[in-house]
Design a protein that fits this description.
The complex is a heterodimer of chains A (about 525) and B (about 100). Chain A is α/β, with parallel strands linked by helices. In chain A, α8 links the parallel β9 and β10. Chain A starts with 8 loop residues before the first helix and ends in a 9-residue tail after the last helix. With about 100 residues, chain B is mainly alpha-helical. Chain B contains three helices and two strands, in the order αααββ. In chain B, strands 1-2 form a two-stranded antiparallel sheet. In chain B, about 15% of the residues are buried. Classes of the chains: A alpha/beta (about 525), B mainly alpha (about 100).
Chain lengths: ~525, ~100
């Protein structure tokens, strides 16, 4: 029997419904894979094996009666940012030590209602702040992808003295995996790594500035951040409330569409959840894109971008053109201001949201001589460096005398960023094609990034505009770089037009093929 | 604009994060790097531009003013580090 963990969600769904496999079997296959791989990859911070077995058993009972939801018996991993009742939910922070919520997030409730099976909670950057999964209290996640070296091996040449013959020494190439460990991206690094390494069929993730799309690009997986308001934020630990959105990371475009359909809903418990019915995203896959207008923004061609990424972008343009799309050059003039504006708006909202971690209601408490001392010691011990940095920036830009200069200015620039997109869509552009990231996955403990926080922030340069404008964006794997690492392309759509993203991403996937890492773990 | 050591300590206190002298010094450098990076926003002409308050045009949802939830005191204090009969315990705040 072939490895059950290598089935896509759509394949597993068909086999489960056809009773060729059981939910118990596929769940056991994933639990065994996690047990083997997790000590190396560190993708899961908690494995809920008993719960997974119980859920699988319930799914099998439903499937036996020909019943069951859209995800009946499909084993998923859940980012540690989602509240799961009675189960470890700590946003991978020390400050939430021991927190086990008494309620379930809306997104995960929707998944369980559709029959999905929970395998456990996935590692992430602390409070979703990071682009490498290295800020987690639980340590970094390892990317299942490694660089490979292509060696040209020269066949031996033999000389046989003067007047002798010289044998024709040919060459052959051999690919060798490098030992250096790479980051899976972040903040949804556990989600991306576990999907790429076949440790779950799909995973939930969240994206505030690129936290779904950047790790998806780094691991050869598909990640979609839907329009702001499409998935309920109820029960998702808040980072920057005007930017946070949940979405899936999956092995292909169809699986991402299946997962988003279940995750999205209209939720009276989230006032920013939008009152629009959730369409059948899967139905968009396979529809032709003939006549579609694809915008190519000139501002996404940045200095120092590797040639591999420029070449990949050109390939993407060619694929869409071949499929009948019309390619148009567009301009989004305020693009370069999105990242600096984000680093005011997001920390400002974070400093406010993270004020709740005070050592009183949940999580860690470090005693002090009075209540203020207790707050200060608790927060000093509970938050990691990156989180403190962002709280400090946020507190500073919101403090008296600086609010107008920083926060108000950033919110005005945000209006202009959104207007850039509105103008382009009003001119008839249906979808925008860009690279997903300015580089491939980098090494764990990269010295450049560690010495300058802004260098790490630049990872989100192509993704953050989408959050600032509240738009949907998908990252789809499109090729490998010269070192054999996956690279992604990003498609950006009109508000609530995720269907066009799935439709177009599928064309790229068909042309590029799928990518999976060589197993070393 | 840039911050000095005194400002960093003041902001840390506003944010209720205890910082050592060494932390504060390191943070001063890091914060100034980030503030230097965001400085470029000042180049943008924002005359007549409204600050964004909502990324999607939507009206605030309202609900019936009725009790829909409650009687969960035990759930609410379940994760607290120190409680007594459904009260959160904190160090003495009133002399």
């Amino acid at each position: 029997m072939s490895d059950l963990t290598h089935l896509t969600i759509s394949e597993a769904r068909a086999k489960l419904r056809g009773k060729e496999i059981s939910a118990a079997e596929i769940t056991e296959a994933y639990l065994a894979a996690i047990e083997r791989a997790n000590p190396v990859l560190n993708a899961y911070v908690t494995v809920t094996a008993d719960k997974a077995r119980d859920m699988a058993k319930a799914s099998d009972a439903k499937l036996a009666k020909g019943e069951g939801g859209a995800l009946e018996g499909i084993p998923l991993g859940i980012k540690d940012l989602f509240a799961t009742e009675g189960i470890h939910t700590q946003a991978c922070s020390h400050v939430l030590d021991g927190f086990e919520p008494r309620y379930e997030s809306t997104v995960t409730s929707n998944l369980w209602a559709d029959g999905a099976v929970m395998l456990g909670k996935l590692n992430m950057d602390e409070f979703a702040m990071g682009s490498s999964n290295e800020t987690s209290y639980y340590g970094p996640v390892i990317n299942p992808w490694r660089r490979s070296r292509v060696d040209t091996v020269v066949m031996p040449t033999t000389h046989q003295g003067d007047g002798g013959f010289v044998s024709a020494g040919g060459t052959k190439t051999a690919r060798t995996l490098d030992n250096a460990q790479l980051v899976p991206g972040g903040s949804s690094g556990g989600s991306a790594s576990s999907v790429a390494a076949f440790l779950c069929a799909g995973a939930t993730a969240t994206d505030t500035g690129g936290s779904i799309r950047q790790p998806a690009a780094f691991t050869g997986t598909v990640g979609i951040k839907p329009t702001y308001g499409r998935c309920s934020r109820r029960g998702i630990v808040a980072f920057a409330s005007s930017l946070d959105q949940a979405g899936p990371i999956a092995r292909d475009v169809r699986d991402a569409a299946i997962l988003l359909k279940s995750m999205a809903s209209v939720d009276p418990k989230d006032t920013t959840s939008v009152d629009r019915p959730v369409p059948d995203y899967e139905a968009a896959i396979g529809k032709p894109i003939k006549g579609m207008k694809v915008g190519i923004p000139k501002e996404y061609r940045v200095d120092g971008m590797p040639e591999d990424i420029e070449a990949l972008w050109q390939k993407g343009i060619a694929w869409l053109k071949d499929a009948g799309a019309e390619i148009v050059d567009i301009s989004l003039p305020h693009t370069k201001y999105a990242l600096p504006a984000y680093y005011i708006v997001a920390p400002a909202e974070a400093s406010s949201n993270l004020a709740r971690y005070d050592g009183v209601r949940y999580g860690l408490r470090v005693p002090g001589k009075d209540i203020i001392d207790m707050y200060e010691k608790t927060r000093a011990a509970g938050f990691g460096r990156e989180v403190k940095r962002r709280i400090m920036i946020g507190t500073y830009v919101l403090s008296a005398g600086y609010y107008d200069a920083y926060y108000l200015q950033a919110q005005k620039v945000r209006t202009l960023i959104k207007r850039d997109f509105e103008n382009v869509f009003a001119a008839g552009v249906d979808v925008i094609l860009t690279p997903a990231t300015p580089s491939a996955a980098f090494g764990i403990a990269d010295e450049d990034m560690a010495s300058d926080p802004v260098k790490m922030y630049l990872n989100d340069i192509f993704t953050v505009t989408v959050n600032m404008a509240g738009l949907p964006g998908i990252s789809v794997p499109a090729g490998l770089d010269g070192k054999g690492l996956p690279l992604g392309l990003q498609l950006i759509g009109r508000p609530f037009d995720e269907e066009t993203l799935f439709q177009t991403a599928n064309v790229i996937e068909q042309a590029a093929g799928k990518f999976q890492p060589e197993k070393w773990w | 604009m840039s911050v000095d050591l005194q400002t960093v300590k003041r902001v840390a206190h506003l944010a209720r994060i205890a910082v050592s002298e060494e932390d504060a010094e390191r943070m001063t450098g890091e914060l100034n790097a980030i503030l230097g990076f965001v400085e470029q926003l000042n180049e943008v002409d924002v005359t007549g531009v409204e600050p964004m308050t909502s990324v999607t045009p939507m009206e605030m949802k309202k609900r019936q003013d009725a009790v829909t939830d409650g009687n969960k005191a035990a759930d609410i204090v379940a994760n607290a580090p120190a409680t007594d009969e459904n009260f959160f315990l904190v160090p003495k705040v009133v002399e």
